[in-house]
Design a protein that fits this description.
By secondary structure, this protein is mostly helical. The chain is about 70% helix and about 0% strand. The chain is built from 19 helices and no strands. The longest helix has about 50 residues. The protein is globular. The two termini are about 20 Å apart. Bound molecules: aspartic acid. The site of aspartic acid has 15 residues, from helix 16 and helix 18. It is a multi-pass membrane protein. Its main location: membrane.
C-alpha cells in the first residue's frame, strides 16, 4: 500500500545520477513522503496554533486551504459508505449482519449513556458556571428534537441519488444494506448467468473500494496543509481571551473526554486488544477529527485505521458510518456538562427529573443527528429547552463551541473505532490479528503508516 499513488520500484530512466553510480537524489516530494504523516500533522498543528495566536482574525484569509481539505474528505464519504457497505454486506450472511448490527447498537447506546452521565456528574462536581454572569449577546435559536417516527422514516430514502447528494448517512446505509444483501443472493443464484453477472458486479464494487482507499492515501498527504489552516483559523477567530472566562467548562468537557478515553482503553484491554497498536492506528482519525470537527467527514480516515487494525470490511463498513451518526460520546459529555453550566449561570437547581430528561433527549437526539461540525450545539439547545432552562447562557457556550467541538469529535471517532474493534473481535473471522506482519513496505512512509490490508471475505 503506497502513500504516494505514483510509487514505483523502478528507477526513473530520466534520472542522470542513475548511470553515474552516485546515489540517486531524492526529490523534495519524495522526502516529504518519507516523513511519517503523524510528524507532519503534529508540526502543522503547532504551527497553526502559533500562526492563529500571532495573526489573530486576519488569518481567516487562509480558510480556503482548510476548506479544500474538508471538501476532499467529504467528497469521499458517500462513495466510501456505499461501496464498502455493499461489498462488506455481500461478504457476510444476513444472520452475521443482524448480530453485528445488534451489538453495535447496544454498544453505542451504552457508551453514550455512560458518557452523558460522566458529563453531568463531572459538571455537578465542579460547577463550571458558578460565579459567571451572563453577558453573551449572540442569539441562539431554539431547536426541538424531531419526533422518533420521523427519524425512523427518514432512514428509508425516497430517492437514493438525493440521499447521496444530501449526505444522509443512514439513508445511504439503508440502500447499501439492501443492495449488498441482494448482491449476496444473486451471487448464490443457481442460474449461471445471474451468478456470473453478480460476480462481475462484485469485482466492480471491490475495485471501487480500492480506488477510494487509494484516493484517501493521496488526500492524507495534503492533510498537514489542511490541518495548519483549520487550526490557525479557529485559534485566530476564538483567541485566548474568549477562552478564559469559560476555562472551567472547557476543562470539564476535556476532562470528561479524557475519562471516556480511559474507559475505551479498559474496554479494549478487556477484549485483549494491543493498546499501543490500537492508538497508533487511531492517531490519524483522532487528529483528523480534532481539526475537521466532523466524525462523518473523518470516516475515510477512520475506515483506513480499521483496515490497519485488521478489522474485516463486513464489520467496519457497517459499524463506522453507523457510529459516526448515532454514537457521539464526546457530544453527550458536552451536552450534559453544558446543560449543568447553563443551570449554574442562571442560578437554577436542576432536579433529578430534569437531569433524566436532559440525558434522554441528549442520547436520542444523537441518533438522529449527523456527525458534522456544530451538531452538538443543536443538541445542547434541545436539551436546554427540554429542561425548561433559558437559552441565554447557551450563547456563551456557542462562542467557544469550535474549541469544544474539536475535543468531542476526537472522542466520537475514538468511540466508533473502539466499538468496531471490539465487535470485530467478538465475531469469528472478522479480525486479522496479524495484519501488521503482512506489510509490503514500498516506502518509509508505508512502513511507518500502513501495516498492510488483510483480505477477509
Ligand atoms: N462535530 C461532532 C462530530 O462530528 C458532533 C458534535 O458537534 O458534537 O462528531
Amino acid at each position: 500500500m503506497a502513500d504516494d499513488p505514483r510509487t514505483t520500484s523502478a528507477a526513473d530512466p530520466s534520472d542522470p545520477s542513475g548511470s553515474s553510480g552516485e546515489p540517486p537524489r531524492r526529490s523534495l516530494w519524495r522526502r516529504y513522503l518519507d516523513i511519517p504523516l503523524i510528524w507532519k500533522l503534529a508540526v502543522a498543528l503547532v504551527l497553526g496554533v502559533v500562526a492563529g495566536l500571532a495573526v489573530g482574525e486576519p488569518i481567516t484569509v487562509i480558510e480556503p486551504l482548510g476548506d479544500i481539505f474538508l471538501r476532499l474528505l467529504s467528497m469521499l464519504v458517500m462513495p466510501l459508505i456505499l461501496l464498502t457497505l455493499v461489498s462488506g454486506v455481500a461478504s457476510v450472511s444476513p444472520t452475521t449482519l443482524g448480530r453485528i448490527g445488534g451489538k453495535a447498537f447496544i454498544y453505542y447506546l451504552v457508551t453514550t449513556a455512560f458518557a452523558m452521565a460522566a458529563g453531568i456528574g463531572l459538571a455537578l462536581l465542579i460547577s463550571p458556571g458558578a460565579g459567571l454572569t451572563l453577558d453573551g449577546t449572540e442569539e441562539v435559536e431554539e431547536q426541538s428534537a424531531p419526533p422518533l417516527s420521523q427519524v425512523l422514516t427518514d432512514i428509508v430514502p425516497e430517492n437514493i441519488f438525493s440521499a447521496l447528494a444530501d449526505g444522509r448517512v443512514l439513508a445511504v446505509m439503508f440502500f447499501a444494506l439492501v443492495a449488498g444483501v441482494a448482491l449476496a443472493f444473486l451471487q448464490d443464484s443457481g442460474e449461471e448467468r445471474l451468478s456470473s453477472l453478480a460476480a462481475d458486479l462484485r469485482r466492480v464494487v471491490d475495485g471501487g473500494v480500492e480506488l477510494v482507499f487509494l484516493i484517501i492515501r493521496g488526500v492524507l498527504q495534503y492533510s498537514p496543509i489542511g490541518v495548519f489552516a483549520l487550526i490557525a483559523v479557529v485559534v485566530g477567530e476564538t483567541g485566548a481571551d474568549a477562552l478564559l472566562p469559560l476555562a472551567k467548562l472547557t476543562g470539564v468537557v476535556y476532562g470528561g473526554i479524557a475519562v471516556q478515553i480511559v474507559v475505551y482503553t479498559v474496554i479494549l484491554l478487556l477484549f485483549r486488544a494491543p493498546i499501543g497498536r490500537f492508538f497508533r492506528a487511531a492517531k490519524e482519525p483522532m487528529l483528523t477529527g480534532f481539526v475537521t470537527r466532523s466524525s462523518s467527514g473523518t470516516l475515510p480516515v477512520t475506515s483506513q485505521a480499521a483496515e490497519k487494525l485488521g478489522v474485516g470490511k463486513g464489520v467496519y463498513s457497517f459499524t463506522l458510518p453507523l457510529g459516526a451518526t448515532i454514537n457521539m460520546d464526546g457530544t453527550a459529555i458536552y451536552v450534559g456538562a453544558a446543560t449543568v453550566f447553563v443551570a449554574d449561570v442562571t442560578g437554577a437547581q436542576l432536579t433529578l427529573a430534569q437531569l433524566a430528561t436532559v440525558a434522554a433527549v441528549g442520547v436520542l437526539a444523537s441518533v438522529g443527528t449527523a456527525g458534522v461540525p456544530g451538531a452538538g450545539l443543536i443538541m445542547l439547545t434541545m436539551a436546554v429547552t427540554s429542561a425548561g432552562l433559558p437559552m441565554g447562557p447557551v450563547a456563551l457556550v456557542a462562542g467557544i463551541d469550535a474549541i469544544l467541538d474539536m475535543g468531542r469529535t476526537v472522542c466520537n471517532v475514538t468511540g466508533d473505532l473502539t466499538g468496531t474493534r471490539v465487535i470485530a473481535k467478538s465475531e469469528k473471522g472478522m479480525l486479522a490479528e496479524d495484519a501488521g506482519r503482512r506489510a509490503r513496505p514500498d516506502s518509509a512512509v508505508e512502513r511507518e503508516e500502513a501495516p498492510g490490508r488483510p483480505r477477509i471475505r
